[in-house]
Design a protein that fits this description.
The structure holds 2 protein chains of 2 kinds. Chain A is an alpha+beta fold. Chain A folds into 3 domains: 7-89, no CATH class; 124-229, Butyryl-CoA Dehydrogenase, subunit A, domain 2; 248-388, Butyryl-CoA Dehydrogenase, subunit A, domain 3, CATH 1.20.140. Chain A has helices at residues 7-22, 26-33, 40-52, 71-83, 91-104, 107-118, 233-245, 251-265, 279-304, 316-337, 354-357, 359-365, 376-387; strands at residues 124-127, 143-147, 150-157, 168-174, 185-191, 197-202, 211-222. Chain A has a 4-stranded antiparallel sheet, with no helix packed on it. Chain A has a 3-stranded mixed sheet with strand order 1-4-5. Chain A is globular and about 75 Å long. Chain A starts with 6 loop residues before the first helix and ends in a 5-residue tail after the last helix. Classes of the chains: A alpha+beta, B alpha+beta. The complex binds flavin-adenine dinucleotide (FAD). Flavin-adenine dinucleotide sits between chains A (126-129, 134-135, 159-161, 211, 368, 371-372, 375, 377-378) and B (259, 261-262, 266, 269, 271-272, 329-330, 332-333, 336). Flavin-adenine dinucleotide (FAD) sits between chains A (126-129, 134-135, 159-161, 211, 368, 371-372, 375, 377-378) and B (259, 261-262, 266, 269, 271-272, 329-330, 332-333, 336). Chain B: InterPro entries: Acyl-CoA_Oxase/DH_mid-dom_sf, AcylCo_DH-like_C, AcylCo_DH/oxidase_C, AcylCoA_DH/ox_N, AcylCoA_DH/ox_N_sf, AcylCoA_DH/oxidase_NM_dom_sf.
């Protein structure tokens, strides 16, 4: 055991820190630290800046732009970007469909999609969930029927995050209705400009538009867009969801948001006094810092011990506790904003600080974090069942 | 001691529930209303007036109906059940309450009757962007010139401030906090309206040597009156929250029965039903505390009311967060959408939590009184 990073890792961290704090356009980092929504253009520019430096998709195979980094280095990369107020590369591209194509796609599909996916020339949407297939994803009903060298797709996906920007959507579709539900699913890539495909916005409780419904009405998809083998889609989905869970503890961004909250608190008291003098506020922030410390150390313990490729069992706490703390900090922000938390729609000329105006919409919006990517109930099931062996 | 409604009170509840149920039968109705200014429905307000709901807490000689806190609590709870956007607590209990408590007989006669009839909707301009919670005013100052008074400074966010037909404004007079009435067309008054996250409206209200009439005794410190009226409004907000929490729990319970995953209703999973049970525990504890606070208010002991209001607001803050967060979580994705109801309930509960002192503010206030008692005795 040893506390210090190796000299090599220290150099790596400094390199990452310099990159993220100097090479990502300032307007993007400002928007993130203002806790406002990034535009499509900002998300694209951010990922392209990383890709130009060869660090957008380090988790991919080296021949497709990945890096031979250790799990610890990948963790440092992820942390440094969040601390610098940089949005991680679009997850749909970088951690979902890219690795699946790289692992299971044909050479032709890899060449066709991977470079454009790494550079966000193609914006991917995730078409898994359906109205009646959420936690129970395998019960999905969208069908793809083979006709000659095409699939004809019918059905509906929902909760499609940023589907309004999507060029392509990777979907799970039912290709065999006559077998056990997991055994009849395929992984199909669909051009979102295809005739018969429509996207309808869903407004969320914070008033924002970030998810959509996607309808498929006799959408014809070339059979060559199938990834891997027909009816093996569930295996690929499990591989993808496994990746989705690794590194999902958003420690760096929560740390940054908490530090920012602490700074804000210094002048948020009556007449500009410091709320940190209020023992209740101080105690709450200390507890959050301590909880975050425990989470970060757990993440570090996991990356330091998963060198053999198998995830450390403690990795299962990362998503669960990561979202708990992410949500707790958004709630702290609303408390710090106090009566000003009401002023969400304030514009120019308002006396309410901008960070108080965005506090509550962020709080409401981040209720999503314990629902998507495997809800916190599903995470507890994994801990209870897979790790503790408690299967009722 | 009796925590139940009598037959007249039950009839009032049924009447208000009927009226609001018609106006806001679905959460889509509410969304439609909150989309355009002033964020609530003038016709529904008028119907509430016709039913007598707007005059309940005021004396008959002032133009009210001489009812009391229990009747107010009944209306507030029904407002909460459908999260009606009409400013019942804000205009009637708070702004109207200040006029009733601090105004001269002429001021009361002029304002209370019109408020009860629904023709005059006042707002309390008190919160300051740097002020947080409490009774004191700092950022708006009052200046006297002969018998005339003017106000200068900014109040923000003022709930319902732009639509208001009359502003009741707190202002600093040499370190004291006094109350003033400001007409909507007064010179030097600029009101900029914007939306609040719960579908409501708030305003940035700037006063620039704006003519104002003292409410009650000119220049006198009225922070004690403000504290009492705010306490009544906190308790009424507690009831509004109870209505909202009860509905959120009912909706969640229904959803656990009807939503199927893995081929079975969600209520098959005890991990979820026990969470609903915990929500019920929170709701009932809040209901007891808030109802108790209303009875303390009815007893009219000033200090006891302030304390009871803080205790109720603290309990509701905890319960509202718990129930609001869990209502969304137990629904999954659908709970996050604006088309579905529960997210709006969580929004409204959050807004009420942060108006008139949030949980932590009241926790701090109560901490100061910790050594005043050995044990808490709820009954006098
Ligand atoms: C903002 C947002 C963005 C999203 N983005 C995408 C996207 O881009 N692409 C995509 O495909 N999907 C996306 N999702 C969908 C997300 O993955 C689902 O919402 C999630 O799988 C839960 O499904 P559900 O909403 O149908 O809830 P349900 O499965 O109906 O669950 C309702 C509640 O019951 C709990 N529950 C369910 N089953 C059990 C059980 N067996 N035991 C205990 N508890 C249980 C759940 O945890 C939840 O609390 C997104 C969701 C949200 C909210």
């Amino acid at each position: 055991m040893k506390l210090q990073l190796s000299d090599e890792d220290v150099a790596f961290r400094d390199e990452m820190r310099t990159f993220f704090t100097t090479q990502i356009p300032q307007d993007i980092r400002d928007t993130v630290t203002a806790r406002r929504e990034l535009s499509k253009d900002q998300i694209v520019r951010s990922m392209q800046a990383m890709n130009a430096a060869g660090i957008a998709v380090p988790n991919w195979p080296v021949e497709w732009g990945g890096k031979d980094w250790t799990p610890l280095q990948r963790h440092i990369w992820h942390e440094e970007m969040q601390l610098a107020g940089v949005m991680p590369p679009l997850a749909f591209n970088a951690s979902m469909v890219g690795p699946v194509i790289a692992a299971f796609g044909s050479q032709e599909i890899k060449e066709r999609f991977l470079p454009k996916t790494a550079n966000l020339d193609i914006w991917w949407s995730q078409g898994f969930s359906e109205p009646d297939a959420g936690s129970d994803l395998a019960s999905l009903r969208t069908t793809a029927v083979r006709e000659g060298d095409e699939y004809v797709v019918n059905g509906q996906k929902t909760w499609t995050t940023l589907g309004q920007y999507g060029d392509w959507i990777f979907t799970l579709v039912r290709t065999d209705p006559n077998v056990k539900k997991q055994a009849g699913i395929s992984f199909l890539l669909i051009d979102m400009t295809s005739p018969g495909l429509t996207v309808r916005p869903i407004e969320l409780i914070d008033g924002g538009h970030e998810v959509n419904e996607v309808f498929f009405d006799n959408v014809r998809v070339p059979a060559e867009n199938l990834v891997g083998e027909e009816n093996k889609g569930w295996d690929y989905a499990k591989f993808l969801l496994g990746n989705e869970r690794v590194g999902v503890a958003p420690v760096g961004s929560t740390k940054r948001t908490l530090a920012q909250a602490k700074e804000y608190a210094k002048t948020a008291g009556p007449g500009g006094t410091s709320l940190l003098d209020d023992p209740l506020v101080a105690a709450q922030i200390v507890e959050l810092e301590n909880d975050l410390l425990a989470l970060e150390l757990t993440a570090l313990r996991v990356v330091a011990n998963s060198a053999d490729g198998k995830p450390h069992p403690a990795s299962s706490v990362l998503k669960l506790q990561g979202t708990v703390l992410q949500q707790a900090v958004t709630e702290l922000w609303v408390d710090l904003a106090g009566p000003n938390a009401l002023a969400t729609g304030a514009g120019d000329g308002s006396d309410v600080p901008d960070l108080a105006r965005t506090a509550t919409t962020n709080y409401l919006n981040y209720r999503k974090a314990s629902i998507y990517g495997g809800s916190n109930e599903v995470q507890r099931q994994i801990i209870a069942g897979t790790i503790l062996g408690l299967r009722g | 001691m009796d925590f139940t409604l009598d037959s007249e009170q039950t009839a009032l509840r049924d009447a208000v529930r009927g009226l609001l149920g018609k106006a806001y039968g679905s959460s889509e109705d509410r969304r439609t209303v909150t989309k355009t200014d002033p964020g609530w429905d003038e016709k529904t307000w008028q119907r509430l007036a016709e039913m007598g709901a707007l005059g309940l807490p005021f004396a008959e000689e002032d133009g009210g109906f001489g009812a009391g806190p229990v009747e107010v609590s009944i209306v507030a709870e029904e407002i909460g059940r459908v999260i009606a956007p009409e400013p019942y607590v804000e205009a009637v209990v708070l702004a109207g309450g200040l006029v009733a408590a601090a105004g001269t007989a002429e001021q009361r006669a002029e304002i209370i009757g019109a408020l009860a009839e629904g023709t005059l909707v006042p707002a309390f301009a008190h919160t300051e962007a740097q002020g947080r919670y409490g009774q004191r005013a700092y950022a708006v100052t009052a200046t006297k010139d002969g018998d005339a008074w003017t106000l200068s400074g900014v109040k923000e966010p003022v709930l319902g401030g732009a639509r208001a037909d009359l502003l009741v404004v707190s202002a600093d007079v040499d370190g004291a906090t006094a109350l003033f009435l400001v007409q909507p067309d007064a010179s030097g008054l600029t009101r900029t309206s914007y939306t609040t996250f719960d579908g409501g409206r708030a305003a940035h209200a700037a006063f620039d040597s704006t003519p104002a009439t003292p409410l009650g005794e000119p220049g006198a410190d009225q922070s004690a009156v403000i504290a009492q009226v705010v306490a009544a409004a906190q308790i009424a907000y507690g009831h509004e929250s109870l209505g909202a929490m009860a509905f959120a729990l009912e909706t969640t319970t229904e959803y656990l029965k009807s939503r199927k995953q893995f081929g079975v209703p969600l209520m098959t999973f005890q991990a979820l039903t026990f969470r609903a049970a915990d929500m019920y525990v929170s709701l009932e504890l809040a209901r007891s505390t808030v109802t108790w606070a209303t009875l303390v208010l009815l007893d009219a002991d000033a200090d006891a009311t302030l304390e009871a209001a803080s205790r109720a607001k603290l309990q509701v803050s905890k319960a509202g967060r718990h129930i609001g967060q869990e209502a969304i979580q137990l629904h999954g994705g659908i709970g996050m959408t604006a088309e579905y109801s529960v997210g709006h309930y969580t929004s409204r509960l959050t807004a009420i939590d942060h108006a008139l002192g949030d949980g932590r503010y009241h926790l701090s206030a109560l901490s100061e009184t910790l050594d005043d008692h050995e044990v808490l005795e709820p009954l006098p």
